Amino acid sequence: MSFPLPPTHEALTVPEVMRALRLSRFKVYDLIRTKQLQSFTVGRSRRVPADALRTFIQDQIEEAA
């Protein structure tokens, strides 16, 4: 399954995650806050590892099955 991620990005911004999941900014931060989606900060910038996003999506697919 192919996900709409930039192929060269290892860490995604919140807006990139929002576009990939088609979710609101609030919901993405809620997923981060509840530790459902891994992230890290660099200074004041929040980043989500591309692998963490793929894992989150895969987990959601498995839960729905």
Question: What's the short version?
Answer:
This protein has 65 residues and is an alpha+beta fold.
Task: Explain how this protein is built.
This protein is α+β, with helices and mostly antiparallel strands and 65 residues long. The protein has one domain (11-64). Helix content is 49%, strand content 15%. The chain has three helices and three strands. The chain has helices spanning 14-21, 25-33, 50-64; strands spanning 11-12, 40-42, 45-49. A three-stranded antiparallel beta sheet has the order 1-3-2. The chain is globular, with a radius of gyration of 11 Å.
Task: Please outline the helices and strands.
Elements (H helix, E strand, L loop, with lengths): L10 E2 L1 H8 L3 H9 L6 E3 L2 E5 H15 L1
Antiparallel strand pairs: 1-3, 2-3
Helix content: 40-55%
Computed over alpha carbons, the radius of gyration is 11 Å
- Content of β-strand: 15-25%
Overall mean confidence score, pLDDT: 91
**Biggest sheet: strands, sense, closure?**
3 strands, antiparallel
Summing up helix and strand content along with how strands pair, one would put the structural category as alpha+beta
Domain unit count: 1
Number of helical segments with 4 or more residues: 3
**Spatial order of the strands in the main sheet?**
1-3-2
Protein name: DNA-binding protein
Domain Helix-turn-helix: 12-60
GO molecular function: DNA binding
InterPro entries: HTH_17 (IPR041657), SinI_DNA-bd (IPR010093)
